[in-house]
Amino acid sequence: MALTAALKQGYQIDSLITVVRHDQSVSVHGVSQDLLRAQASALGLPLIEVEVNEAQSYEVAVSTALREQAARGIRKIAYGDLYLEDIKQWRERFHKPLGLQCIYPIWQTDTTELAQRFIHSGYKAAVVCVDTKRLGIEFAGRDYDQAFLNDLPKGIDPCGENGEFHTFVYDAPEFSAPIALNRPAPILREFDDPGHRFTFGFCEISQAAHSN
């Protein structure tokens, strides 16, 4: 939705950029590089992949990649943030020394309205990760559709803006073709942070042999 909004606002999209772990998946979401590449291919856009590993922190890896983009003339980077002011302020501080301006095409859009627009505008997404403190593991692997929204407990943001869940878009009006998915049964994974332990439910989707 942020990409579509940016295009409607008159921006030209040069490329997509993502951060991947050394195991070739997106942090938190757990989506593989192969699926990210399929998304970019369906959109007809280049994909810049920034790898974060034990030898290079997120900040170092991303700042290096963004400096390279700024050096070739890129001046703006778009994010799909909706209303979390602390994240927006962090992005502003991080990007300013790199010579990049952050833009937020869907900032402060009502999330209930945005969810309905997503569903009724031809977008399709699979729920790939859920925070099990907020949602049951059975939500992982489901389509992000009206039935999913109807089943969300009270207090859960319909766009998952607070990290309640994460999705993978497998079809959109801008796609040349939908991405066919395999959806195995969801699994639980635990992550340790200093003083905290988090449990997430994942549906480890993969690209099916044939996309129609």
Outline the fold blueprint.
Blueprint: H1 2-8, E1 16-21, H2 33-43, E2 47-52, H3 58-71, E3 76-78, H4 85-95, E4 101-103, H5 111-120, E5 124-131, H6 146-151, E6 165-171, E7 181-182, E8 187-193, E9 196-202, E10 206-207
Parallel strand pairs: 1-2, 3-4
Antiparallel strand pairs: 5-6, 5-9, 7-10, 8-9
Explain this structure to me?
Helices cover 28% and strands 24% of the residues. It is an alpha/beta fold and 212 residues long. It has two domains: 1-109, HUPs (Rossmann fold), CATH 3.40.50; 114-212, no CATH class. The strands form four sheets. Strands 6-5-9-8 form a four-stranded antiparallel beta sheet, with no helix packed on it. Strands 1-2 form a two-stranded parallel sheet. It has a two-stranded parallel sheet with strand order 3-4. The protein is globular. The mean pLDDT is 92.
Give a brief outline of the structure.
It contains 6 helices and 10 strands.
Keywords:
alpha/beta, 24% strand, two-stranded parallel ribbon, 212 residues, Rossmann fold, 6 helices, 4-stranded antiparallel sheet, 2 domains
Query: CATH class of the largest domain, please?
Result: Alpha Beta
Query: Might you state the CATH topology name of the largest domain?
Result: Rossmann fold
Strand content bin = 15-25%
| Order of H and E elements | HEHEHEHEHEHEEEEE
Mean pLDDT: 92
Radius of gyration in whole Å, from Cα? 17 Å
> Could you give me the name of the CATH homologous superfamily of the largest domain?
HUPs
Strand order of the largest sheet: 6-5-9-8
Number of domains: 2
What structural category do the secondary elements indicate? alpha/beta
